[in-house]
Amino acid sequence: MKKALILFAHGARAASWAAPFERLRDIVAAREPAVDVSLAFLELMSPRLPERTAALVAQGVTDITLVPVFLGQGGHVLRDLPVMIDEVRAAHPQLAVRVVEAAGENAAVLQAIADYCVGALVDVD
Q1: Which domains does the chain have, with CATH numbers?
Q2: What does the pLDDT look like over 64-113, one tens digit per residue?
Q3: Which helix (H) or strand (E) element contains residue 33?
Q4: Mind listing the UniProt keywords for this protein, alphabetically (predicted)?
């Protein structure tokens, strides 16, 4: 079974917006060298999720975990993403697709952000 991890983000018109997501992708890929770690976007940037999934399937990937890199479960995660996942599953019925909670809904992620915020107070003088 060949695995892939897709970090799913909104996308923006400015290419520079993707820089933190690219850094996150690189950090995760360094920690999981046996897994294809990539980015996919909802809109405005490429690759979009259906394109990225099709490319991974063409490379022999059979198992995808998708991490929405959103702070909350807003409309895009609750409405748009499930529609896209249904389309991916219909196009690639042999593909196992697992979608986890939005990053900002995870307790460990929130703790890391809280630590950063508290640390910002220490640096203020």
Answers
A1: 3-122 (3.40.50.1400)
A2: 999 999 886 766 677 788 999 999 999 999 999 999 999 988 999 999 99
A3: none
A4: Lyase, Metal-binding
